[in-house]
Each structure stands twice: as C-alpha cells, then as structure tokens.
C-alpha cells in the first residue's frame, strides 16, 4: 500500500505546472483498482474500452451507461487514493444536454470523480453544463474510438495542417468552457507537444508522444493480454516483470522519468 493522500484535481494541475508526469491506466474492477492504486498510478480511467477488453466487442459502441456505472462502482470500491475518471459511453451524451447531465450524475454517484467524453465543437455546451453543475470533465480529442466508423478506422488524427488547426481550436474551446483534463489519442507528437505548451490544463497522451503532461494505456494492452499485433504506442510492461504489480510500478516509474513513451518507438 502507498501512503499518499487521495489525488485531487488540484494535484493533477500542479503536476502539469511543475512538469511532473501524470501516470494513468484504464481499470475496470476492484481487484485491479487495488493493485494500480498501491502501485502509485495517479488516475484510473474506467474506459469504455471495457467493451473491447472485458466484453469482447470489436468496438466501444455497444457499452451502456448501466455497464459503465457498474464498473465505475467496482473500481471505486477497490480504489483508495487514485483519481477516478469514468467514460460517458456512446449514446449517453449525443442526444442532448439534459440527458447527458442525467447520465453524468449516474457515473458520479457510482463513485467517479470526473467524467470523460469524446469529441470537440458540439460537445462544448455539454462540457460547460457539466462544469456549471459541479461535474469535472476530461475531454478526449484526436482518434475518438466512439467515432471509429466515421473516422474510417484506427488512424492517426491531426496530421494535415487543417486537421491540426481544428484540433487546436477544439482543445482551446474545451479548456475555455471548463474541461480540466484532455486526453489526446493517436495525434502526431509535435502537435500534442505544442498543445500541451499552449493549454493551461494537463494533456494525457495515448499515442501522442512524450511531451504530454501524462500518459494513459489500456491496462490489458500494457499487460500483454490482448491477442494480435499491439498498436505502435503500446509497450508490454509484463516483459521481464515477475508480477502485475511490478509491471505497473515500472509503468509509473517510466512515465514519471520520461522513459515511456519513447518518441522514436511509440509516437507518430
Ligand atoms: O476507453 C478508453 O480506454 C479510453 C482510452 C483509450 C483513453 O478512452
């Protein structure tokens, strides 16, 4: 067990300002929450990637708000000190702000400290209304898995100047309406670096280079549990580790020391 006090949003902001990297992993149940918290992971993301890694779906689209609330409650019961973020699943915020607030409240009551939603532009009024109601928000730009069909598959986003410009505009707008964290997924490392320097809120990268304020990986990817060729941005931390807790401790240490990700190996 670690002796740290519960991680707060204020701590995460301070880490961004001081240049201490934030180590985040996805987590879906109480047992792993206990291990990840004890290993010093700063933030646990109850990702809708549970649709892929727990439920075996090809995408995150079938995950329901009831399933997200269930897994959030499991994680909250196992966790002691890490910051807990719960994903708003597909369909839980697309239909309008009132329904979105209703679903965000569900996740907060299940034990989340913050909710995450994907996309920019049209999400700004939703983010604003969550923040006005005391619900902290993590935004998610770049490759957004709930839009996998619209985006034409798993592809890097923001390579062309127009696309990078839109990403910058969306990120600044989301920060202006109160988003407190921003996940950048599969974004060129130079674009993510510039955004991290320009924004006052922490950026958390997954396939977005070493210059983000922090990093997140899907737990089952970094434990080498998923079949098939891993994404370029994944490292299997079970390689050479004698236990899951030691693998997770190595991840935390490597993120904090700037050893993971290595832009030459893991970035675009
Ligand atoms: O659902 C998830 O695991 C995520 C991460 C990939 C950032 O959104």
Taking pLDDT < 50 over at least 5 consecutive residues as the criterion, the unreliable ranges are none
| Relative helix content | 25-40%
Radius of gyration: 17 Å
| Largest sheet properties | 8 strands, parallel, barrel
Q: Please list the strands of the largest sheet in the order they lie side by side.
A: 1-2-3-4-5-6-7-8
Mean pLDDT: 97
Structural class: alpha/beta
What is the ordering of alpha helices and beta strands?
HEHEHHEHEHEHEHEEHHH
Query: How large is the count of helical segments?
Result: 11
* Ligand identities: 3-methyl-2-oxobutanoic acid
Q: Between the first and last Cα atoms, what is the distance in angstroms?
A: 36 Å
Report the principal-axis shape. Answer: globular
Structure report:
The chain is an alpha/beta fold and 268 residues long. It has an 8-stranded parallel β-barrel with strand order 1-2-3-4-5-6-7-8, surrounded by 8 helices. Helix 2 crosses helix 4, helix 4 runs parallel beside helix 5 and helix 5 packs across helix 6. The model has no long low-confidence stretch (mean pLDDT 97). 3-methyl-2-oxobutanoic acid binds next to strand 6.
């Amino acid at each position: 067990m670690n002796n740290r006090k519960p991680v707060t949003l204020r701590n995460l902001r301070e880490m961004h300002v001081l240049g201490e990297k934030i180590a985040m992993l996805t987590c879906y149940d109480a047992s792993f929450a206990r291990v990840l918290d004890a290993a010093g992971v700063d933030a646990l993301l109850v990702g809708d990637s549970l649709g892929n890694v727990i439920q075996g779906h090809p995408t995150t689209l079938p995950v329901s708000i009831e399933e997200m609330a269930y897994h959030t409650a499991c994680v909250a019961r196992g966790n002691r000190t890490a910051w807990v973020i719960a994903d708003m699943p597909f369909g839980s915020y697309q239909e309008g702000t009132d329904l979105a607030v209703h679903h965000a409240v569900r996740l907060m009551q299940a034990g989340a400290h913050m909710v995450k939603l994907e996309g920019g532009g049209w999400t700004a009024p939703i983010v604003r209304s969550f923040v006005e109601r005391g619900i902290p928000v993590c935004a998610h730009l770049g490759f957004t898995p709930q839009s996998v069909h619209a985006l034409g598959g798993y592809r890097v986003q923001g390579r062309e100047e127009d696309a990078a410009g839109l990403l910058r505009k969306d990120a600044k707008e989301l920060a202006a309406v109160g988003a407190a964290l921003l996940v950048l997924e599969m974004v060129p490392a130079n674009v993510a670096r510039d955004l991290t320097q320009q924004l006052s809120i922490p950026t958390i990268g997954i396939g977005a280079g070493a210059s983000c304020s922090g990093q997140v990986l899907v737990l089952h990817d970094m434990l080498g549990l998923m079949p098939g060729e891993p994404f370029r941005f994944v490292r299997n931390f079970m390689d050479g580790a004698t236990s899951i807790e030691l693998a997770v401790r190595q991840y935390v240490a490597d993120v904090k020391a700037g050893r993971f990700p290595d832009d030459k190996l893991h970035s675009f």
